[in-house]
Amino acid sequence: MPSLAKPSQKGRGKKKGGKKPAKIVPDPDAAYRQQLDETVYIPKVARKKVLDTYRAAADRAIMANTVDVSSPQRDGHREGPISLIKVPGIFQSLGLCLTDDQIDQITAMIAQDPQCLSQENDTVYQMEPIQGPGNFADREKLHALLVELLHTRVLAYDPQVLACPHPRFPDRVSSVVCSATEGDIRSCFNTIWEASGRMVMVTANGTCTRCVAVEQLEELLTNAQTESAATQSLTPKEFRDLCFFVKGVNDDVVKEDAFLNCFIHVQ
């Protein structure tokens, strides 16, 4: 005769163990951004034109800081990850002045995905020494962030969406990214010009223009800095890169208009 006892209910109805998914904190700036979109409407054509300008500027900045025009492998530099050592210079070339905290946050935001790193073509890594996935930035992430910062001037760091958030920044934070204004750049040239001897040269059409001799500029930026100075001296390579952009082809001087035109391009 079969047993009339009910089967044991032990173990039934219990959910499988495991960690609960982390609660996603809503974006505190979402309502503010929506309000801006509703009150300050920018036509689609005008918005596209502005963003295209920023995209082109980001492309130029990345190329200028990563591509060696004299290298036979220069075409390979146009794709693949970018050494994180070069990232601060890319932002600086666009007039974006980052704090140390912002640089650390950006590093976590644009770090190359380790899974993607092994899938890249080996020829890409013949150009840069490999020291680990954390030493490279994803080119597309970097480009997108550059365009966003040029457009908004606000760095929105959200560790919830990052595979490897920075350990010093466990919470979401937004910060304003300062930029060098035209007045700042003109003041910079004035300081260099006065410190280097106030050189003036006469152009072919008879007008006078202020300029700085390359030798004096090198002495000022690479040799004259001391430990007590507010900024560090430029390395020889950094100085050569600067001269590449601001020095005339047939001149050994840096003219004021060339200096200003080089740095006053994205505002």
In short:
This protein has 267 residues and is α+β, with helices and mostly antiparallel strands. The protein contains 10 helices and 9 strands.
Largest sheet, in brief, is:
3 strands, antiparallel
Low-confidence stretches: 116-133
Alpha-beta classification: alpha+beta
How much helical structure, as a percent, in the residues?
Answer: 40-55%
Backbone CA Rg = 26 Å
How many beta-strand runs? 9
Biased composition (Basic residues): 9-22
Region (Disordered): 1-30
Structural description of this entry:
Residues 1-30 are annotated as: Disordered. Residues 9-22 have a biased composition (Basic residues). This protein has 267 residues and is of the alpha+beta class. It folds into two domains: 41-66 and 77-179, no CATH class; 182-225 and 233-263, Recoverin, domain 1 (Orthogonal Bundle). Helix content is 42%, strand content 11%. The protein is built from ten helices and nine strands. It has helices spanning 30-39, 44-66, 87-93, 100-110, 114-117, 139-152, 182-195, 214-223, 236-246, 256-263, and strands spanning 82-83, 96-97, 136-137, 154-157, 173-176, 178-179, 199-202, 208-213, 253-255. The strands form four sheets. Strands 7-8-9 form a three-stranded antiparallel sheet. A hairpin with a 5-residue loop joins strand 7 (199-202) and strand 8. Helix 2 packs across helix 3 and helix 7 (182-195) runs antiparallel to helix 10 (256-263). The longest helix has 23 residues, at 44-66. It is elongated, with a radius of gyration of 26 Å. Mean pLDDT is 78; it is low at 116-133.
